Amino acid sequence: MNDVEVVVAHSERTTLRVGDMFLKVDADPQRLEAEVEAMALVPVPTPEVLWHKPSVLAIAAVRGAALGRLGEPSTASPAAWAAAGAAVRELHDAPLPTRTGRGPEELAAELDAECAWLVANDVLPADLVTHNRRVAEAALRPWKPVFTHGDLQIAHVFVEADQVTGIIDWSEAARGDAHFDLAVLTLGHEDRLDDLLTGYGTDVDVDVIRAWWSLRSLLAIRWLVEHGFDPTAPGCEIDVLRARM
Predict the structure, then answer these.
(1) At what angle do helices 193-200 and 78-92 cross, to 10 degrees?
(2) Has UniProt tagged this entry with the keyword Translocase (predicted)?
(3) What is the pLDDT of residues 91-112, one digit of tens each?
(4) What gap in Å lies between CA 144 and CA 157, rounded to an integer?
């Protein structure tokens, strides 16, 4: 009999693993519907959908291992990172989905609110927040929308023999900024950006990727704290902000 492994659990979503099957239980059924729709559209490897009911999605495990983990050095080869870059490029070149992500104005308003919260609650020093707020401004410009994953964390990309075998967790997929996906994938692994761009291509603005490192980290900290995660862990969001100083 297979054991049940709790992969992640918080008030919005719980993911369980039973053998080679993952069960995702979501408080918002529309997120699961969006995930299933995105996986049917994208031209990159995704998990097999075993079945889907309101609030529950069952998917098969993908082969290989995650490209890495936030807060830990990635042991994946430069070739594996380049393969990930090529897969992300294929995604960004795909026909646009109907779903639209947050635009620059909405992000700017959210950033103002989160920075105010971080300072008011003594979560971070004011000078650290102010500096990263300035860095983040470079990301808040008009962009040409592409098909973005929307939550392309390093742990969501699986590789085997230097090839991408699957990209998981598509609930945030939408039209968005290509630089955002590239930044989230290299968050805390800035030293692997050149390897990623070897596969993706160099027609990107690295300064905008750096801006997204600050922007994404500033926006994520309150959510992480409120959902039981630790952004102060070595190599995680607060270290990313300190590295920008």
Answers:
(1) 50
(2) no
(3) 999 999 999 999 999 999 999 9
(4) 24
Best CA proximity match to 182, nearest among 212, 147, 144: 212
Question: What does pTM read for this prediction?
Answer: 0.95
Residue 135 sits in a domain of what CATH number?
3.90.1200.10
Instruction: Give the whole-angstrom CA distance, residue 208 versus residue 187.
Output: 13
**Would you put residue 55 in left (φ > 0), alpha (ψ -120 to 50) or beta?**
left
Residues 6+ apart with CB under 8 A from 211: 135, 136, 137, 138, 139
- What's the domain range around 158? 64-243
Please check whether residue 23 is in contact with residue 53, taking contact to mean a CB–CB distance below 8 angstroms: no
d(CA 30, CA 104): 24
Number of domains present in the structure of the chain: 1
Tokens at 24, concatenated: 């995702």
